[in-house]
Design goal:
This protein has 12 helices and 5 strands. With 307 residues, it is α/β, with parallel strands linked by helices. It has a 5-stranded mixed beta sheet. α5 (163-176) runs antiparallel to α6 (180-189) and α11 packs across α12 (279-304). The protein is globular, with a radius of gyration of 20 Å.
Length: 307
């Protein structure tokens, strides 16, 4: 069977809503929604995935890059749509039967509200770092959509075995969206508590981004060793290996040679926070993103007992 390539629609990186107009042509069998920087990557979508989406007329999600893999195949499905617009980490294949979706003014909210029927396929280019949007090291406050603020403030897993870690999940979701003070409040609700004191870890991240580097190091000393550290060290090694900067090797040694060094990472963030757009600053933001995803996943496990 030969399947025509569908029409690509670039989406707003904030709302996820299509920013380009769909074709009126009836020959379009379905659309691919995604970030404008990912358009050329549509060629990597396997033909069988396109054929399946056409035949079954189902909304299909194809994660992109290492960030898409960690979002859609490592995080619980209830959390994945809440960390950012779906189209920043995945392609969304929309068939004719669901054409109303491409006219959505807030695709992110629509997919986050009803994602149980999404067919999530294998990640393409899973060994590459491709996310176009990453949280800043020292962010300014940004406005959170009202629907997302409500979803986070009322978020509660179906099964809770550690109540302090329920607060820590909300602290993490707020932190990913640069809501530093609301995240701070949630982490204070579970200070020194929880299976792996996740609230203290999120507290340390909050102060690192505030930035209050000295205070951040205090909280990381309170955390001690954490289950996220071994995998975070491995990811950081990969990030530094793919960073074209004369200092990347030295930072790699400092942060990972004896296991993950959280206070060493505070030093890196302090050095690079004002150097936006440089390779080393991008590396630090990338490591920070994986740190928050790893911690959010571990916090959910600690809260629910579900791996």
């Amino acid at each position: 069977m030969t399947t025509a390539r569908p029409q690509f629609l670039s989406c707003d990186p904030i709302t996820g809503a299509p920013a380009s107009a769909p074709s009126d042509s009836e020959a379009v069998s379905f659309w691919i929604l995604g970030h404008s920087q990912h358009q050329k990557l549509t060629e990597a979508i396997p033909t069988e995935v396109l054929e399946s989406a056409t035949q079954r007329q189902e909304i299909t999600l194809v994660p992109i890059g290492a960030e898409g893999e960690w979002t859609w195949h490592r995080l619980p499905r209830v959390l994945a749509p809440l960390i950012g617009p779906v189209t920043n980490t995945a392609f969304v294949l929309v068939p004719q039967e669901s054409a109303q979706l491409i006219e959505s003014q807030n695709l992110w909210e629509d997919l986050a509200t009803d994602n149980s029927s999404l067919a999530v396929r294998d990640t393409i280019l899973s060994n590459q770092f491709l996310a176009p949007e990453l949280p800043d090291l020292a962010p300014s406050h940004r406005r959170l959509p009202s629907w997302l603020r409500s979803r986070i403030s009322t978020f509660r897993p179906e099964r809770v075995i550690s109540a302090p870690d329920e607060h820590a999940i909300r602290a993490g979701l707020l932190q990913i969206h640069d809501q530093l003070e609301p995240s701070h409040v949630e982490s204070q609700h579970c200070q020194g508590d929880g299976v792996h004191v996740a609230g203290d870890y999120w507290h340390g991240i909050m102060h690192r981004r505030e930035p209050d580097y000295h205070n951040s190091k205090y909280w990381f000393r309170r955390v001690g060793e954490h289950p996220c550290f071994p995998q975070l060290a491995e990811i950081a090694c990969d990030v530094f290996d793919n960073t074209d900067d004369s200092q990347s090797d030295q930072w790699n040694v400092k942060l990972t040679s004896s296991g993950w060094n959280p206070n060493g990472f505070v030093d890196l963030c302090e050095q690079t926070a004002r150097l936006q757009g440089t390779p080393l600053e991008l590396a630090a933001r990338r490591i920070q993103w994986f740190e928050m995803i790893l911690l959010l996943s571990q916090t959910f496990t600690d809260c629910t007992g579900e791996s």
